[in-house]
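Ticket #4471: structure output looks truncated?

Reporter: J.K.
Steps to reproduce: submitted the chain below (356 residues) through the standard prediction queue, then opened the result file.
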Amino acid sequence: MCSLSLPTTDHMSAVENQDESRGDEEEQKGPKRKISLSICAVCGSEEAKYRCPGCLTLSCSLICVKKHKTDSGCGGVRDKTAFVTLSQFDEMALLSDYRFLEDTGRFADGANRDNLVRAPRTTSKAKRLASNARKMNITLRFLPVTFTRSRENSTFFTKEKQFMWHLKLIFPQSNTEFIQRRVSDRQTLEQILTTYIHPTESDPVKRQKLKIYVNAPFDHVKVFMKAEGRKANSVRFHQLVIEKSLRDNLSYKTLIEYPVLHVVLQDHWKEYPLKGPAEPVSACSSIATKTEGVDHERKHISPSLQGSHTPRGTNIWMGTSETSPEIEPPQQKRAKREAEEKELEEGELRDSSEEC
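Returned output as attached by the reporter:
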């Protein structure tokens, strides 16, 4: 027969002692956990269970977490670029920096794959529009295709040799803007404004929004357009003639994508300082202007100097001989510099891309 061994009293007591020691350890862990954590920083009554990754604020529940974000405006997102001292720099901080660099590389690679970013700055359509506008003495420039103003531009050139403009009208005294598409450049500004501020012929909905313009006399309304190609601290405007067509008003002016017109009442005209001459001197005519200035200075040269010649019969001031030196006289250089300075109005930027 097999004998059955029963646990002795010593073995039983050892097991009981182990259970008691485990219970004592669990009881000790409880108080330690309560001591290690602080009180909730939001309500101040409960034990804190969570720590905000963004500002390290302690909270006890979801309600306190939401209240903390609402009151402090904290987004709860850890600052990946926060400064960490060398004594606190550990493996977790190193891993965080490594993942941050991975995210940066992934974002840069995604931007390079974006079709909008890789698209050309100007399309073939934009080049044709700029070429046709140049024939009408209009300088038309375009923004990259990623810009909203470039995407919403609906301007096109017809077979009848006219522009159908994408037009933006701003009425600052009513805080209202309107976008009008397919506006012929042969229409006058008066015809364009008739649908907006005419007392009887305008659209009823637009008339209600522009009541202050409708009630004002028509001669108290002026149309301005911002002069492009100037410094940010020197904003100027062109005053357009309401009786003339849109093509005539845009002639000898610079546009970015499409015309933006400001319709202003009389009390606010002084807020739109005007630019200088409406027709700037082109690069080709500037050369002629410089030459005239040089000739004008030559007339004031004394007769004795005008008649002075080199031994080979060359006039040293006029430089008419084939053997005239390539170096220009000081008076001619000075005249050129003065002519270039006079061409640019104060605050205007020079565009080196313009050609004759």
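Triage note (M.O.): checked the attachment and the full token line is present. The longest helix spans residues 9-36.
Status: closed, working as intended.
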